[in-house]
Amino acid sequence: MKTRKVDLEKLFKIYDHPAAVLFRAIELNAIYKLTKDIEFSNASLDLGCGDGVISELLFDKRFMYGVDNGEANDVDIAIQNNRYQKTLLESAEKMSLKDNSVDFVFSNSVIEHIPNNEAVLSEISRILKPNGYLLFSSPTKMFGKFLFVTNLLNKLGLHFLANLYERKRNKMLNHYHILDYETYKKRLEKHGLKIERYTYCVSKETLKLWDIITVISYICKLLKFNINKILTTSLRSLIQNKVDTDSNNTKTGTLQGNLIILARKSK
């Protein structure tokens, strides 16, 4: 199985929230660029699979397993649409799969949401065969710092409120682990997983826009008004521009909001 480029128009059709389209489009394109030359084995697992839409879009073949704890209440969609050969309703911290049973584990913006990060990495290492791949994405510690409101409050000298907003947003998104490359490198190596490739994606300017969209949408939702369709229509060109700009940006120092890692289990 191989990764493939995901068309932005497909994401507009799938997600009703323009912020989700913006973030996912950049992230999935970065994953494709990082791994497009690799052929992954079909003995594969989508960890935290949810409705299975992401893996179906990003890969040219169906995964063998989908694992999800069901908290998001969308895994039934994956089952109904037969997106995995087998869907397992269980925790990533303790999976029922046998040791050395899969060649490839994929996880899209999931492991940062699981409190016991070490247990997840240990389980991934356990079920992976020697030389097996782990491919995952996760927001970094810069995610909250890049947000529009965080930056605005800092410019006004309200640093305490900026830090409070940053912590609150990460808490609302259940970001238990927002780590950089070096920290993940140490954690992965502890469990016999060596990083082969990595890349950062999502710029500060993009996350500012992402934050503006989500704040407007959240406030309108509290007022019982769904503004997402209006935002999608009015911001469509801007989203396209941000996706193109970030996807073609070769200055990785400006792309620190999200991290993608490809690691491999030791022989």
Overview of this structure, please?
- Helix 2 runs parallel beside helix 10, helix 6 runs antiparallel to helix 7 and helix 9 packs antiparallel against helix 10.
- The protein is α/β, with parallel strands linked by helices and 267 residues long.
- Strand 4, helix 5 and strand 5 form a beta-alpha-beta unit.
- It has 10 helices and 7 strands.
- Helices cover 45% and strands 19% of the residues.
- The protein has one domain: Vaccinia Virus protein VP39 (Rossmann fold), CATH 3.40.50.
- The longest helix has 20 residues.
- The protein has a 7-stranded mixed beta sheet, sandwiched between helices.
CATH topology: Rossmann fold
Kindly provide the radius of gyration, computed on alpha-carbon positions and rounded to a whole number of angstroms: 18 Å
Low-confidence stretches: none
Strand percentage lies at: 15-25%
How many helical stretches?
10
Spell out the helices and strands N to C: HHEHEHEEHEHHHEHHE
Q: What is the CATH architecture descriptor?
A: 3-Layer(aba) Sandwich
The spatial strand order of the largest sheet comes to 3-2-1-4-5-7-6
**Percent range for helical residues?**
40-55%
Strand tally is 7
Total domain units: 1
Largest sheet: 7 strands, mixed
Could you say which structural class the secondary elements and strand pairing correspond to?
Answer: alpha/beta
Distance between the termini: 22 Å
Given the C-alpha coordinates, what overall shape results? globular
Q: Average pLDDT value?
A: 94
Considering the protein shown, what is the CATH homologous superfamily? Vaccinia Virus protein VP39
